[in-house]
Amino acid sequence: MGIVEEAHNVKVLGSGDRVIVLVHGFGTDQSVWKHLVPHLVEDFHVVLYDNMGAGTTNPEYFDFNRYITLEGYAYDLLAILEELQVDSCILVGHSASAMVGAIASISRPDLFSKIVMISASPRYLNDVDYYGGFEQVDLDQLFDAMGANYKAWCSGFAPLAVGGDMESVAVQEFSRTLFNMRPDIALSVAQTIFQSDMRQILSLVTVPCHILQSVKDLAVPVVVSEYLHQQLGGKSIVEVMTPDGHLPQLSSPDIVIPVLLRHIRYDIKS
To answer: N or C terminus: which one in the chain shows less Cβ crowding within 10 Å?
Structure first.
């Protein structure tokens, strides 16, 4: 195993001819894909890894300067694909990692046959003629709460993000992975993601994109999925799913996994 693979806890499962790469979003790790992986291993080589800063990675490897923008994560993705000698894959990116995949695809479109985006947003802040869902004061309060008492913030944020009560398995699972992050790293990652603005690069993304969005999501209003659809430079399709929450693949797998599999297996009609 190479240095990059080891640092990111890379796992390769399955026996199919094609490669599919699953990339988790903020506050989770590769375990967020546990309901999806069993459905893929017969048809695909499934690549899983943890983003740097996840609680499962060595915090000493987290470079605050490298990860001050999402490009740092895109470089990691490309390095992992290179180390695994992957020449083409389907990328499934959750939340910020959907944008990470989009960034990576601009420099290496040959590596990605399609990107399946779950709960993706190019910008979380509202702007003139753009609704991202947050005002700056909202984000400042979020960052202040994270800095003041991270454990208390996790307990409050997890049910809001997942869309459920503290007793639900999905909320407990997200609480666990969120709390596993080192607080200063979690705050830095949250600031990078929530302050990001990827709108200007969307037209440069030529790889086909499948945009999947929950009907109600604390972090991403439904209108953002339509914005992505209109602004992306290549073919794209939107499907708004009935479950609530920012992590539908974890909280509503019975509904979401069949939708995901359909978008993975079938291409956008010309």
So the answer is: C
| Active-site pick, 246, 251, 252, 263 | 246
Count of beta carbons in the 10 Å neighbourhood of residue 85: 6
pLDDT band, residue 2 (cuts 50/70/90)? confident
CA angle 118, 101, 140 (to 5 degrees): 70
Rounded to whole angstroms, the Cα distance separating 268 from 114 reads 9
Is 97 a residue of the active site? no
Q: What is the largest CA-CA distance in the chain?
A: 51
- Residue 117, phi then psi, degrees to nearest 5: -105, 125
Decide: residue 141, CB within 10 A, 0-12 exposed, 13-18 middle, 19+ buried.
exposed
Query: Given strand 18-23, what is the order of strands in its sheet?
Result: 11-13, 44-49, 18-23, 89-94, 112-118, 209-216, 236-244
| 3-state secondary structure at position 229 | helix
Among 50, 217, 236, 252, the one annotated catalytic: 217
| pLDDT tens, residue by residue, 22-68 | 999 999 999 999 999 999 999 999 999 999 999 999 999 999 999 99
Annotated active-site residue 121? The verdict is: no
- Secondary structure E strands in the chain: 11-13, 18-23, 44-49, 89-94, 112-118, 209-216, 236-244
**pTM for the model:** 0.97
Length of the chain, please?
Answer: 270
Closest CA to 173 of 258, 94, 119, 247: 247
Residue in 8, 50, 95, 105 annotated catalytic: 95
